[in-house]
Amino acid sequence: MEQQVTFQDLNLNTPLYNALDDLGFEYPTPIQSQAFNVVASGKDVVGIAQTGTGKTFAYMLPILRHLKYSRQDNPRVLILVPTRELVVQVVEEIEKLAAYINVRVLGVYGGTNINTQKQAVAEGQDIIVATPGRLFDLALSHVLQLKSIQKLVIDEVDVMLDLGFRHQLLNIFDILPERRQNIMFSATMTEDVDDLISDFFITPQRITVAVSGTPLHNIEQSRYEVANFYTKVNLLEHLLNDTETYNKVLIFVAFKKLADLLFDQLEERFPGQACVIHSNKTQNYRLRSIEQFRAGENRILIATDVMARGLDIENISHVINFDTPKYPENYMHRIGRTGRAEQQGHALTFSKEKEFEAIQTIESYMDMKVPLLDFPSEVEVSKQLIEEERPQIRERNNPTKRSDEDAPGPAYHEKKDKNKKENLGGSYKFKIAAKYKKPKTRGDKNYNKRNKRK
Ligand code: AMP
């Protein structure tokens, strides 16, 4: 059996051990033991872990372990989080862990008086915890200098991007020193998160913790192969007709647009029985929907990955993956919503051809096959296609396009000598880049991409 890692196995120091003792924490959580050395090494890190896994200490333990005492006023660690509640929570956690360390921590967020925050910043800080918008405003006012930031943590990056903060993040990247360690934590992987990683991180080390406590043994998993979106709708409606079996159903859809489209379809067929949550809905609307679903007033809840995480609702009879998650971690998060407290849960996954590869990835991640069910013969296969399913219109079908025979031949006169020169890209910038092999402009996205593939 694998030996349980203890805090003694991590290279901490007395002030941290004392703080952990006070907190009564005996063992590091899996994300804490896995992340410690990687974060401490200074490499870029992407951690996939949900709230509740101890992820705040996963990045704070190594950061506090190696943060030296300093009198300088400019902060050296910046932690970005999506909401002000999280700012408060993270600051509290850091203060507990740093109880015996002389470190200055400040939380800043929007919706409160910026002048009070400016004063606090001006007193000198070591660690700033912030929401992106307020951070940027403070930086623009020049009260907050970011030139000494050595470590950037972006926590709950999936929520951050889902709430539309990408642009704000890019603005902040632009004013941060180029040489810094990037540490990202996300509960789910999404395309947006993937894009951000490939655009701005150089070969980050990835740490994933298995979704703890996902009781695979009491979740019955099965799947259907389905032709297209509207056929999936037909199949779903067919299943949901059985109100007794499908009495509390959580349906996952990857994109907001499709979540809304599906909601409209179900609302027609089962009026008043469904509700939907995603980040374009207001907080109140989302809370109300969740409450109605929890209380059983609505039998069906449609949700996107990011919005449904952390949902702890009892007695969910079925999780239906209306689409097949591209990332196996998301599949685990999704199905873990059913089969709680040792009850039998059911997880159904719909896959169209494009998604077959994803189901294979999920199966190898779990090291088990998800049984395939026969597509019910009474369900109509729809011919209607949504935009992304329609065939691409190809240029060669364009009747106005010139055929090859009509193509112009070579120029009938030789080029003049001066025009024969080939452009070798001989600018100063290219020479310097070739010599030093590093980007001369900040955040050179293409350079990072090129080098990542090496
Ligand atoms: P987080 O995932 O960072 O939101 O942490 C979830 C909760 O677990 C917080 O209340 C932490 O204080 C607590 N926690 C963090 N690390 C440990 C640990 N090693 N042992 C017990 N509880 C922990």
TrEMBL record:
Residue segments, region Disordered: 384-454
Iron-sulfur recorded as keyword: no
Domain Helicase ATP-binding stretches: 36-207
Compositional bias of kind Basic and acidic residues: 385-405, 412-423
Domain DEAD-box RNA helicase Q: 5-33
One Gene Ontology MF term: helicase activity
Position of sequence motif Q motif: 5-33
Protein's UniProt keywords contain Endoplasmic reticulum: no
One Pfam short name: DEAD
Helicase C-terminal domain ranges (all copies): 235-387
Keywords from the named record: ATP-binding, Helicase, Hydrolase, Nucleotide-binding
Superkingdom of source: Bacteria
Family to which this protein belongs: Belongs to the DEAD box helicase family.
Matching PANTHER family: ATP-DEPENDENT RNA HELICASE DBPA, ATP-DEPENDENT RNA HELICASE RHLE-RELATED
The protein's name: DEAD/DEAH box helicase
Lineage: Bacteria, Pseudomonadati, Bacteroidota, Flavobacteriia, Flavobacteriales
